[in-house]
Amino acid sequence: MTTQPIHDPRPLFALAVGQAEQQIAAVRPDELGNSTPCADYDVRALIGHMIAVLHKIAGVGAGRDVSEFPDVIDDVADTDWISAFLKARDEVDRVWADDAMLDRSVTLPWATLPGHVALDAYTHEFTVHSWDLAHATGRLSELDPDLAVQALDAFPRFAPPETRSGQSQFGPAVAVPDDADVYTRLAAYLGRDPRD
């Protein structure tokens, strides 16, 4: 009996994180206080959250307990957000370069999963947060629709509407027209109102 090769999510993860990097690099200082569709986060806090997520991904890959890692990094100067993001991304790339990571179980704050499944989930989280950031700063036209297609296909496995609670980062799905673009449909599926 042959086993199926493990799906390698790293190339798609790199695209999603690269898109987030481009969005962060484009943020002007006067936009850091803008509200975002991600509840409780302005642009500054959302960027700090994405950096914190990278720290968690590197941490779980290194076998660390990340349950006490912060959800938002907030000790970065306003002019240093992109360099902090790049430093955290480099650490993730270093830790996850080993192919064995893809089959190794990693313990996240919300589940224990094979590495390739965990990295898939984080790939799609970065896609959504790129939309959050682009929506808050008016750069929606710069997003890669293929990443949203992948995320919209994956989220029913990671965040089905019936499992969401008032404590979840995702709210009830929002109705949008059938012909809405893929990022609008993705945001709406996760409970973000694209009209806000």
From TrEMBL:
It comes from the Bacteria. Coiled coil: none annotated. GO terms for molecular function: metal ion binding. Transmembrane segments: none annotated. NCBIfam families: maleylpyruvate isomerase family mycothiol-dependent enzyme, TIGR03086 family metal-binding protein. This is TIGR03086 family protein. Residues 19-134 form the Mycothiol-dependent maleylpyruvate isomerase metal-binding domain. It comes from Actinomadura darangshiensis.
